[in-house]
From TrEMBL, chains A, B:
Stated name of the protein: P1 family peptidase
A Gene Ontology molecular function term of the record: aminopeptidase activity
CDD domains associated with the record: nylC_like (cd02252)
Source organism superkingdom: Bacteria
Family: Belongs to the peptidase S58 family.
Organism: Vineibacter terrae
Taxonomic lineage of the native organism: Bacteria, Pseudomonadati, Pseudomonadota, Alphaproteobacteria, Hyphomicrobiales
Length: 343, 343
């Protein structure tokens, strides 16, 4: 186990980033496809090809989940990923045409630094996301970077640099579950002004520093901090959970809904009006059926744990962007190499 | 009144097409934005940025609706349209960034002829849809072509060439309503083997030939014909209705649901498992509120009529593609210049 979503057999993940624009994309590819669902709990989502995931829709399997920065501009990324999927022979066949399905969600990183030249000169400069989606799909493998990488490249939380996180686990029935998340939260992943993560209770080993849960909650613990005070701002945490269990589309939607609870436990606040928080759930169906409780209940609980852990890992691994006024990273604020003067 | 959706003040429409690839895109731009909703009644939809249209989501206004061919590849078109919207200063402002919203639905025209080189050589040839979306948005004006144009360029029905259609009307309260549709139906717009349209009862003047309703239904009227016999095939009819009334997002969703009834009346069958049938509804909110019945009921009924008429107009105006085995157009089969030997 690598403690990545790629521990789920048949799931590969690739990142691509544009350092100048300070943004990126992450693509999860399912070898042989996956049954999938989505639960969109943020109030300002941006998505592509998600209508077909609803249980009353016919399409049975998808081939990739794309997470990217760029807000609505980022929705080009699934196009680039789709070209790679076509080249790789992915997808179902319709009238002799092989048509892979890449579904996508985006996060808002347009104001986190970097040169967004397509906003200044929209008829001369094309947004980089189609190429980022293509390159991330081309890079898909069993190993990928966490932190300031892929869709997490330009991501932030209200107080610390956000990033890309992942984690995995096995259920009591032997199913593998993995989580992948780009943390660009409206709120905080850490408790008050301290170094502890809200997800501390769920930590496995020292996967995000080993501080665990604080012995005593700081007085600042419940002080509410979020992006957009005083002016409204947009954020968004987007995620995927995957399992090798065999699930139907309705069960995948149930899994996506339960997995959102991992966001609730690791971020405060989350699922806000200007968030586009979206969680995809994908079942590669290589293992036994887990369609009913208690198997599906356990999958959902473990998926939520994986996402909570992945969120903390993404923030813990992130490095600040090299811009003036960039949000500091967890290591700068709380790590061994922190500058003096910081707690 | 031009009998086009652009009779609704503030709505402009542009087409772009790629004759070699036999596909295209149509973009409706809302000057000053529009409140919008969507109702997706087909079983295999492809869409972009539609999650934000749901009534529980925050985004209040959109700037454009994009209809295009290309199935899931076509979803790049909203990206190109968005660049034009940025250049034109459209969209709300978030953290100093002007962010226009272009929502999109696609239809499946990949097997209707034309050179889809990006399917053969996906790493060398990029799909043309980003450029088609850009060019259609650049072409947006009060007048636009119907028939084999824009998103209707590669469209077909089971027995006749499909195409782009539009129609408009005024309600008793003085609201203007317009419909825009790309007819790529799984079924037929005409009754049995004859020239009459199912939408004949709703015809205004001679907007689609003036044949009206047949005096006597032909014996073939209810013979069921649809694409995908014996092998499954995909189709899709995608549409927009717009009004100058002031509506909330929930009322726009209600309008989109009622407008789907225009598809039901003009096409048989429709809303099928392999259809992606999607209807957007947009309110420019330049007129009085029409939030409640009976005003909203009348808007919905008139919007459905407009879409039924627009469907017949789109088929009536279409010209067959210049490919061997291309589906014939209505004029060839039933028009004044039809070859002898055809009815």
């Amino acid at each position: 186990m690598k403690n990545l979503i790629t521990d789920v057999p048949g799931v590969r993940v690739g990142n691509a980033q544009d350092a100048r624009a300070a943004t990126g994309a992450t693509v999860a590819v399912f070898e042989g496809g996956a049954v999938a669902g989505v639960a969109t709990l943020g109030g300002a989502p941006g998505s592509r090809a998600v209508s077909l995931l609803e249980p009353e829709m016919m399409r049975g399997r998808i081939d990739a989940v794309v997470l990217s920065g760029g807000s609505l501009f980022g929705l080009d990324a699934a196009g680039g990923a789709t070209s790679v999927l076509v080249a790789g022979g992915h997808g179902g066949t319709f009238g002799g045409i092989t048509l892979p399905v890449a579904v996508q969600a985006i996060l808002f990183d347009l104001t986190n630094g970097g040169e967004k030249d397509w906003l200044r000169a929209p008829m001369e400069c094309r947004p980089p996301y189609w190429e980022l989606g293509r390159d991330a799909a081309l890079a898909a493998s069993d190993a990928f970077a966490l932190g300031t990488a892929g869709a997490g490249y330009g991501a932030t939380t209200v107080n610390l640099k956000g990033g890309l996180g992942s984690a995995s686990a096995r259920t009591s029935q032997g199913f593998t579950v993995g989580g992948l998340v780009a943390v660009n939260a409206v709120g905080a992943a850490t408790i008050g002004d301290g170094p502890h993560f809200w997800a501390g209770a769920y930590e496995q080993g020292q996967e995000f520093g080993g501080l665990g849960w604080p012995a005593r909650l700081p007085a600042s613990a419940l002080g509410l901090r979020f992006k957009g005070l005083p002016a409204p701002a947009t954020a968004t945490t987007i995620a995927l959970v995957a399992t090798d269990a065999t699930l139907s589309k309705p069960a995948c939607k149930r899994l996506a809904i339960m997995a959102n609870d991992g966001l609730a436990r690791a971020l405060r606040p989350v699922h806000a009006p200007n968030d586009g928080d979206t969680v995809f759930a994908a079942a590669t169906c290589r293992g036994a059926a887990a369609e009913e409780p208690p198997a599906l209940t356990e999958l959902g609980a473990v998926a939520a744990d994986c996402l909570a852990r992945a969120i903390a890992r993404g923030v813990h691994a992130a490095t600040a962007l090299p811009f003036a006024n960039a949000v500091p990273d967890w290591q700068q604020r709380f790590g061994a190499g922190r500058p003096s003067g910081l707690p």
